[in-house]
């Protein structure tokens, strides 16, 4: 699954630089995660780094984007091969 940022986001700016795939960017009101770039840090780290640094715990799994570990690894390989 890709991750998402909920409206509890306080725009603290700590998650964006932690994302190894540059999937996090400022949105109109809060930060957003591009689900096409989010691999939950698979291929880079054991745990999603944005979730680790978020002070308000507003980065859950996106229920609209079901992806297996294999699918996330495939996406990681495509992203990093470019």
From TrEMBL:
Keywords: 4Fe-4S, Iron, Iron-sulfur, Metal-binding
Domain of life: Bacteria
PROSITE patterns from the UniProt entry: 4FE4S_FER_1, 4FE4S_FER_2
Residues annotated as domain 4Fe-4S ferredoxin-type: 1-29, 31-64
Entries under Pfam families matching the protein: Fer4_7 (PF12838)
Keyword rRNA-binding carried by entry: no
InterPro entries registered for this protein in UniProt: 4Fe4S_Fe-S-bd, 4Fe4S_Fe_S_CS, PSI_iron-sulfur_center, YfhL-like
Name of this chain's protein: Ferredoxin
Source organism: Vreelandella boliviensis LC1
């Amino acid at each position: 699954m890709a991750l998402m940022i909920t409206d509890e986001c306080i725009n603290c700016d700590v998650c964006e630089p932690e994302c190894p795939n540059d999937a996090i960017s400022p949105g109109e009101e809060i930060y957003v995660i591009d689900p096409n770039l989010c691999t939950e840090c698979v291929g880079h780290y054991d745990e999603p780094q944005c979730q680790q640094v978020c002070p308000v715990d507003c980065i859950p799994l996106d229920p609209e984007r079901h992806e297996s570990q294999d699918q996330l690894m495939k996406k990681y390989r495509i992203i990093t091969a470019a």
